[in-house]
Specification:
The structure holds two protein chains of two kinds. Chain A is α/β, with parallel strands linked by helices. Chain A has 24 helices and 28 strands. In chain A, the strands form five sheets. An eight-stranded mixed barrel of chain A has the order 18-19-21-22-24-25-26-27, surrounded by four helices. In chain A, strands 2-1-3-4-5 form a five-stranded parallel β-sheet, with helices on both faces. In chain A, strands 7-6-10-9-8 form a five-stranded antiparallel β-sheet, with helices on both faces. In chain A, β19 (473-485) and β20 form a beta hairpin. Chain A is elongated and about 155 Å long. The termini of chain A are far apart. By secondary structure, chain B is mainly alpha-helical. Chain B has a domain at 23-110: HPT domain (Four Helix Bundle (Hemerythrin (Met), subunit A)), CATH 1.20.120.160. In chain B, α3 (49-65) runs antiparallel to α4. Chain B is elongated, with a radius of gyration of 15 Å. Classes of the chains: A alpha/beta, B mainly alpha. The interface between A and B is medium-sized, with 20 and 21 residues.
Chain lengths: 723, 128
């Protein structure tokens, strides 16, 4: 602390009722270089005091209208003036008033008769002491402000952990009660934390270096995390700064969750999954065990988001996620994404893509079992806001070590396998095989070609006749897509239609097909074939849109045909997605007068009750049943059942893929209404249809309806006459 | 008759170039003292003990300041009387006080004039 040695120039307030005294005081003070204000009594003194804010007050005790003692007391009560030195001028040997002056808060006294030179010096001393006090006060408030701003609670502890001094910080929750001084810090903590705390105190004192550690405090349901820093203080004491870091910890956990977990489903995200996968691979390599990766893609999920909005999509995704989690859980629920033994992990890696990592599998069958569980879990429809949704998975399975040595290879191959599953018709699973990779490259190539074909109009429609068994002959044709590629040659619709569905190209293609078919009807009716109906295949992808009806209606109107000339064939197995929307669209189409047939019947998953609801006009028995109808009793039984059921529902039943006279005889016997197949003609361009119709042979039917006709191969060929 | 030490103390405070401090003090004192003595008389007549005490107290210091020690002493006695509540005999004390007051004024006037005053006093001052 340095002591000011300069003479201080200050403001002095001189209070005395005797003017000559005031004059003397003024002279003395001015001689010292100070500035003087006067007051004649206590009341005036208070006014002058507030006005001029003197650095010191010289005041006589005896005054009329508020004496010096009372004035002093009042002065001290004024806020902010508590520190101003007051020098009372007391009577000679008047110890009563000296005492009173002290009690009123006077800083010092000088008794009369005043020794004038001494007075000047006395004032200097007092001013210096006052200055020092003021500096201290400023320093103190700075310290207080500083301490108040620190979010730590601070206390001084001795080597035994006893709290010698406690400085509260007044910031939110305190971990110590305010009267903890004297207590042992460990008393406020759980035993393990207390031991830890004391150990750190000892270490701080022994090493002399700062120790930092954490502890938990508070209720079990809401523990508060605290960070402690212990600093060596004087004389074997430590300064403990304790900070509540619960928020920081919570925020860090939140960031971690955001970074590694999907916010919608709570499942691990791709990042975290890759980490888990790499670690699992490391373990598997070390143990020599196998791992399976199941890539799960939800079929046509984009449709739901596009048509019903993301909020519905999100709700469905959450339900799907929870059902998938159910697949992998053990009997105890531990975490939403891992089973009790952490053998399987589920993650969401894309918009509608999930993946399951299965550790320690024995063989392909283990992996397949998981896949089947997934199918099972998603089988029953999801209900949301009164609607029902069917969501099916396409699953691709890759195994370690056979299908890839690292995370990237396995992910890629599982993805490729999943793609295969889609190509195979969706709602199924496929194991990866090398040929798939080749196929996937081919697929990409094909996609590019298809796009070009659509743009350039390289696709064509061929027509295959449908024959009425009761003798009306060719009653209609089915329109089939044909793609003759300049280099590749003929590309089967089985190859490119799934690809078109995958890429959305099916939409422009279907529009074109519909328009084309309608124009063809128009053309044929002009050519005298007005009774021919044209059936077109419609991808179930178009149903979700709700503008299928509009599109069909547009085509009908534009070509000015009778709606009943058009027939739509929809595949049984692909009635997925929003069942209500599908139903609505179908109804609209039927109301136009367009006929509806269910194609490939017998191969799909629709229930009979749903079929009843759909109210279609015809069923087409899948060719796979017709194929062995003459040799396989089961196939025959199925066909028989389908016919019976169809008829009892009032539907036409059509047999597809009739290639031999025997098959024809069989289906006639069973009572089918119509037949289609190579026996009656391959698909041909529109231009050839009039000729086909013209050269149609009724005998075939007549013969079939009788006993089985034994014909020579050449005669059969001649009868066919169309090859 | 005046205590020169007190007067010297005042003289010591004189700042060069400033008007004569002692003169100013004496002038102020003279006016003030006159008022205090008159007030004291009236207070005694009225029986206002408090006022007696206060005036006596004030004059006591003022007089002492200017070296009029005898006067100061008499004032002290008056103050004591008043404090004890008994100012019955105050009046005769006042006689002596008043005389001393006059003498002090005269002495101060002489000081003011710059010359030392003899015991006999100045004719002017004595007749005031």
């Amino acid at each position: 602390m340095t002591f000011a040695t300069r003479r201080l120039r200050c403001r002095v307030l001189v209070v005395d009722d005797d003017p000559s005294m005031r004059m003397m005081l003024r002279e003395t003070m001015e001689a010292g270089g100070h500035e003087v204000t006067e007051a004649a009594n206590g009341e005036e003194a208070l006014d002058r005091f507030i006005e001029s804010r003197p650095d010191i007050v010289l005041m006589d005790v005896e005054m009329p209208r508020l004496d010096g003692i009372s004035a002093c007391r009042k002065l001290r009560e004024l806020p902010g003036f508590g520190m101003t030195p007051v020098l009372m001028v007391t009577g000679n040997d008047d110890s009563a008033s000296i005492k009173a002056a002290y009690e009123a808060g006077a800083t010092d006294f000088i008794s009369k008769p005043i020794n004038w030179p001494i007075l000047g010096q006395r004032v200097q001393f007092i001013l210096r002491a006052a200055r020092t006090l003021r500096d201290l006060e400023v320093s103190e408030s700075k310290n207080r402000a500083l301490l108040g701003a620190i979010p730590d609670s601070i206390c001084v502890l001795n080597a035994d952990g006893q709290i010698e001094q406690q400085l509260d910080h007044g910031q939110g929750e305190q971990w110590l009660p305010s009267d903890a001084e004297g207590r042992i810090v460990g008393d406020f903590l759980e035993s393990e934390h207390a031991r830890d705390f004391h150990a750190h105190i000892r270490r701080t004192l022994d090493t002399g270096s700062m120790q930092t550690f954490e502890f938990q405090h508070g209720r079990k349901t809401a523990p508060r995390a605290h960070e402690v820093r212990l600093i060596n203080y004087r004389n074997g004491r430590v300064l403990a700064l304790v900070r509540n870091i619960t928020e920081r910890v919570t925020a860090a956990a939140k960031v971690h969750r955001l970074a590694f977990f999907d916010t919608l489903t709570g499942l691990p995200n791709r990042q975290r999954f890759l980490r888990a996968l790499r670690s699992a691979l490391g373990e598997a390599q070390a143990e020599g065990s196998q791992i399976a990766l199941l890539f799960i893609d939800l079929d046509f999920f984009k449709r739901i988001n596009d048509n019903l909005g993301h909020s519905t999509g999100d709700v469905l995704l959450k339900s799907v996620a929870s059902r998938l989690a159910g697949c992998i859980r053990g009997s105890d629920m531990v975490s939403p994404a891992e089973d009790t033994e952490q053998r399987q992990t589920l993650a969401r890696v894309g918009g509608d893509e999930f993946v399951i990592l299965a550790r320690g599998i024995q063989d392909k069958h283990d992996a397949e079992r998981i896949g089947i569980r997934v199918h099972e879990a998603l089988r029953s429809p999801f209900s949301h806001l009164g609607r029902e949704f069917v969501v099916t998975p396409s699953i691709g399975i890759a195994l370690y070590p056979q299908d890839g040595g690292d995370a990237e290879a396995l992910m890629k191959n599982a993805d490729t396998a999943m793609y295969e599953a889609k190509t195979a018709g969706r709602n199924t699973h496929r194991f990866y095989s090398e040929s798939m990779s080749l196929r996937s490259m081919e697929r990409l190539d094909l996609e590019l070609k298809l796009r070009k074909a659509v743009e350039h109009g390289d696709l064509e429609l061929y027509y295959q006749p449908k024959v009425d068994i009761r003798g009306r002959g060719i009653v209609g044709v089915e329109a089939l897509l044909r793609w003759d590629h300049p280099e590749e040659g003929f590309i089967s619709p089985e190859r490119f239609v799934p690809l078109a569905e995958e890429t959305g190209l099916i939409i422009p293609i279907s529009e074109w097909v519909t328009t084309q078919a309608c124009e063809q009807v128009r053309a044929w009716s002009g050519a005298g074939l007005g009774d021919l109906t044209v059936a077109i295949n419609v991808s179930s992808q178009l149903f979700g849109f709700g503008n299928l009806a509009t599109m069909v209606w547009g085509a009908i109107c534009n070509s000015n045909i009778d709606a009943s000339s058009l027939e739509l064939e929809i595949t049984e197995s692909l009635l997925l997605g929003d069942l209500n929307q599908i139903h609505k669209t179908l109804r609209e189409i039927q109301e136009m007068g367009v006929a509806l047939a269910v194609d490939d019947f017998g191969t799909g998953y629709s229930s009979l009750s749903y079929l009843k609801r759909l109210n279609v006009d015809a069923l087409k028995i899948d060719r796979s049943f017709i194929n062995d109808i003459t040799t396989d009793a089961d196939d025959r039984a199925i066909c028989s059942a389908v016919v019976a059921m169809g008829h009892s529902l009032g539907l036409n039943v059509i047999a597809e893929g009739v290639e031999t006279a025997d098959q024809l005889a069989a289906v006639c016997q069973l009572g089918c209404d119509e037949v289609q197949g190579f026996l009656f003609g391959r698909p041909v361009p529109a231009s050839q249809i009039p000729e086909v119709v013209g050269s149609y042979r009724h005998e075939l039917i007549a013969q079939a309806q009788g006993a089985i006709v034994d014909l020579e191969p050449e005669e059969l060929r001649a009868l066919r006459g169309l090859e | 008759m005046l205590d020169q030490t007190a007067l010297d103390n005042i003289r010591a405070l004189q700042r060069p170039g400033q008007p004569d401090l002692l003169t100013r003090i004496i002038d102020t004192y003279s006016r003030n003292a006159e008022a205090l003595v008159n007030g004291l008389y009236r207070a005694l007549e009225d029986g206002d003990i408090e006022l007696v005490r206060r005036n006596a107290h004030t004059l006591k210091s003022a007089a002492a300041n200017l070296g009029a020690t005898a006067l100061s002493e008499l004032c002290r006695q008056m103050e004591e009387r008043a404090r004890s509540g008994d100012i019955g005999p105050g009046m005769d004390l006042f006689e002596g006080l008043h005389e001393e007051h006059e003498r002090a004024l005269a002495a101060l006037a002489a000081e003011r004039a710059g010359s030392s005053v003899s015991v006999d006093g100045d004719d002017e001052a004595a007749s005031a």
